[in-house]
Amino acid sequence: ILNVEQSPQSLHVQEGDSTNFTCSFPSSNFYALHWYRWETAKSPEALFVMTLNGDEKKKGRISATLNTKEGYSYLYIKGSQPEDSATYLCAFIGDNTDKLIFGTGTRLQVFP
Amino acid sequence: DAGITQSPRYKITETGRQVTLMCHQTWSHSYMFWYRQDLGHGLRLIYYSAAADITDKGEVPDGYVVSRSKTENFPLTLESATRSQTSVYFCASSEPEGGYTFGSGTRLTVV
After folding, report:
1. pLDDT digit string (tens) for B17-31?
2. Contacts of A48 in chain B (CB under 8 A)
3. What Å distances lie between residue B49 and A93, A94, B65, B74, B89, CA to CA?
4. Taking CB atoms and an 8 Å cutoff, what residues of chain A touch B101?
5. pLDDT value of residue B2
6. Do B90 and A99 touch (CB under 8 A)?
7. How confident is the model at residue B1 (pLDDT cuts 50, 70, 90)?
8. pLDDT digit string (tens) for A30-85?
9. pLDDT band for position B8 (50/70/90)?
10. Given CB atoms, is A59 within the 8 Å cutoff of chain B?
11. Which residues are CB-contacts of A97 (< 8 A; sequence separation ≥ 6)?
């Protein structure tokens, strides 16, 4: 059974703070790592699809890094805003499967 | 409109009944997926399909049946609903190397 773990489970920050969270995944048979943003009462939206070790992706104030050799990815949010409040999911896909396995997410709340 | 649509949005059914959740996508994505969302478990894969007429089991397939006779449709059937199948169900589609696009979800309650 593949384990995708995210930490912390939840996070409360003040508006303007920068924050980051971690996704850990199996380092063997890596194919791709996805990040999704999931607002309450909506459906998950894709942020990044990362495939290469050392990859860095950026979308506005959100960025992500990938280390496939040690099996982790970081998601960073610079200058958090209340509209960044959501659950951030990472998901792993191995090279011997076409199934995406999700972590349980980090729930971020940004207070004004 | 282009996108991925799920129906119904909400459904209440009785234990033992058969119920079908519909999923339709307009992008001609080859892959389609069904996930269920439960507290403490996040999103768990029920079934997926790599192309029309090809389906495969996910993590939690028991009690569910899927079919994919056309690329754009991927219905999920609960053959005899149980209370443990009360959940929010999400359908998603993707191309092989792309991010997933999710539907709005179906909230199913089995009483």
Report:
1. 999 999 999 988 999
2. 99
3. 15, 17, 12, 8, 16
4. 46
5. 60
6. no
7. low
8. 999 999 999 988 999 999 999 999 999 999 999 999 999 999 999 999 999 999 99
9. very high
10. no
11. none
- Tell me if A87 sits within 8 A of A41, measured CB to CB: no
CB contact under 8 A, A102 and B43: yes
Question: What is the distance of C-alpha B2 from the center of its chain?
Answer: 19
Contacts of B44 in chain A (CB under 8 A): 102
Task: For residue B29, give the nearest of B75, B89, B92 by alpha carbon.
Answer: B92
Residue A10 · residue A29 · CB < 8 Å: no
Per-residue pLDDT at A100? 87
In the numeric block, the tokens 């950026």 are attached to: A58
Give B-chain residues touching A104 at CB under 8 angstroms. 40-42
CA A19/CA A85 separation, integer angstroms:
12
Over residues A17-31, the pLDDT tens digits come to: 999 999 999 988 899
A37 contacts chain B (CB < 8 A)? no
DSSP string for residues in B72-106? TB--EEESS--GGG-EEEEEEEE-TTS--EE---E
Evaluate the CA torsion angle A97, A100, A104, A105 in order and state its sign.
positive
**Residue A28: predicted pLDDT:** 86
